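A reminder from the course coordinator: this example appears on the midterm review sheet, so study it carefully.

Given structure:
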């Protein structure tokens, strides 16, 4: 009612004529002080106290006196907020059992939504822990989705009529308004992490939203702003954000962003419905019967969570297949290295027999050098290997020889190693292997391709050196890598 202003009383009255054996009255008010009279007798009063100076979300149950039919029922509401002035309280009168059954049936959707939110959070946390690896952006998007689901679940509990009786009106107001403010913020930040080409444009809107949230919460904390009024301010800004989000979703979908291609119809539809609802709220037309934003946020939660599950399960499946391929490649590589080990030993023995000499370290390294010069030449890689060892040094044991083969195979098989310069020298009873490698660069008439040096932990190689009781040093700088391995002869 537009003529009712803040701190003005709105009086609702009616003669009660229906006869009830166990009459019950339920009053629901939205941030309003409430007084209930039967005739001139005050039955209930919700007013300001020292501990609570502002009204909250009220739901109270009142038993009517036996002679209620002889008097008029009067309900007087008053609010300090312009946003909630002139909104009539919701009044329910009937048999006690029927009223309880009515509210229980009305709360079933909220019960269902709360259960769905709990189930989704358990599944999302399960995926968070079972996913093999997470990048920072993926981890943050998962946490935002979990937070978004949690907020929707909390708001469904607040709107659940039987569950809401467990909280005070002020607590209900705090939980409802805070979740209503934070839900769009979590959602837009999740959208931001999903954008690619237009992320910097969307960042301006989301950044403004986060700054507004920070300033608003700070003003609420120091008592300069009340939460219901802050809710109206955020509702006004959300009118802009809903339209801006739909524009970004359309642009990302046109750019073949898979998330927006699949989810943009739901996002755009929800954005426009939210826009009209927020305009109504901003104009002061608060809706007490149906919470359309919660319905739409629930739909978005199910849509986004469904996409998230499909994406995560597809990644886990692909990761496991990749791990199986890597394990198979390692087995093949190990078999190849063992075959090469036996081949080099046989070739060294054959060379020593032909020259009437014993097998030496020099013979072994010479066979390895000749073989890999041919292999690197086949792959158009620049390879040089300098041998500075004594003529009749003792041969390497199988473990150390296998380590050398593993090192050469690594440079041969990894594409980004293009220039390899290795020196193997003997210093007394130690064999020192040093190398400088650089990234592979190829030029053509149409394009230039520069392969960046991939981050490689070299764990297998390092473990092999340690098994041989050797010393390990590997250093990466820009597109060049340097290593030094020292083995005991």
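Designed residues:
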């Amino acid at each position: 009612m537009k003529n009712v202003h803040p701190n003005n009383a709105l009086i609702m009255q009616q003669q009660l004529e229906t006869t009830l054996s166990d009459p019950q009255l339920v009053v629901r008010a939205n941030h309003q002080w409430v007084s209930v009279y039967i005739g001139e007798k005050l039955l209930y009063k919700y007013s300001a106290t020292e501990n609570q100076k502002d009204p909250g979300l009220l739901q109270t149950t009142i038993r009517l006196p036996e002679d209620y039919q002889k008097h008029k029922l009067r309900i007087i509401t008053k609010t300090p907020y312009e946003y909630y002035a002139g909104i009539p309280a919701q009044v329910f009168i009937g048999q006690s059992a029927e009223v309880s059954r009515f509210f229980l049936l009305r709360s079933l959707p909220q019960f269902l939504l709360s259960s769905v939110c709990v189930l989704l959070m358990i599944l999302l946390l399960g995926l968070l822990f079972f996913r093999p690896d997470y990048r920072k952006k993926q981890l943050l998007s998962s946490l935002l989705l979990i937070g978004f689901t949690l907020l929707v679940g909390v708001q469904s509990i607040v709107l659940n009529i039987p569950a809401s009786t467990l909280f005070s009106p002020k607590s209900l107001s705090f939980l409802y308004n805070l979740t209503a403010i934070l839900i769009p913020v979590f959602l837009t930040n999740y959208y931001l992490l999903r954008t690619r080409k237009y992320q910097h444009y969307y960042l301006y809107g989301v950044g403004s939203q986060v700054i507004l949230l920070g300033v608003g919460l700070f003003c609420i904390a120091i008592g300069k702003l009340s939460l219901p009024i802050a809710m109206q301010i955020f509702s006004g800004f959300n009118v802009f954000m809903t339209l801006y989000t739909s524009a970004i979703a359309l642009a990302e979908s046109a750019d073949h962003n898979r998330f927006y291609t699949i989810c943009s119809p739901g996002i755009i539809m929800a954005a426009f419905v939210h826009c009209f609802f927020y305009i109504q709220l901003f104009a002061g037309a608060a809706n007490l019967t149906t919470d359309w934003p919660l319905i739409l946020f629930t739909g978005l939660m199910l849509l986004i969570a469904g996409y998230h599950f499909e994406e995560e399960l597809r990644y886990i499946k692909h990761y496991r297949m990749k791990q199986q391929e890597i394990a198979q490649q390692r087995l093949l590589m190990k078999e190849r290295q063992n075959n090469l080990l036996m081949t080099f030993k046989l070739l060294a023995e054959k060379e020593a027999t032909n020259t009437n000499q014993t097998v030496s370290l020099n013979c072994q390294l010479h066979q390895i050098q000749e073989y890999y010069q041919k292999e690197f030449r086949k792959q158009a890689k620049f390879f040089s290997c300098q041998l500075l060892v004594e003529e009749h040094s003792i041969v390497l044991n199988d473990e150390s020889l296998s380590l050398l083969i593993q090192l050469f195979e690594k440079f041969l098989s990894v594409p980004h190693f293009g220039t390899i310069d290795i020196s193997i020298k003997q210093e007394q009873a130690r064999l020192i292997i040093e190398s400088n490698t650089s990234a592979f660069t190829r030029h053509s008439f149409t394009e230039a391709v520069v392969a960046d040096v991939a981050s490689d932990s070299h764990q297998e190689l390092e473990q092999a050196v340690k098994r041989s009781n050797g010393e390990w040093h590997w250093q990466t700088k820009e597109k060049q890598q340097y290593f030094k391995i020292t083995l005991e002869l």
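The chain has twelve helices and 14 strands. The radius of gyration is 37 Å.
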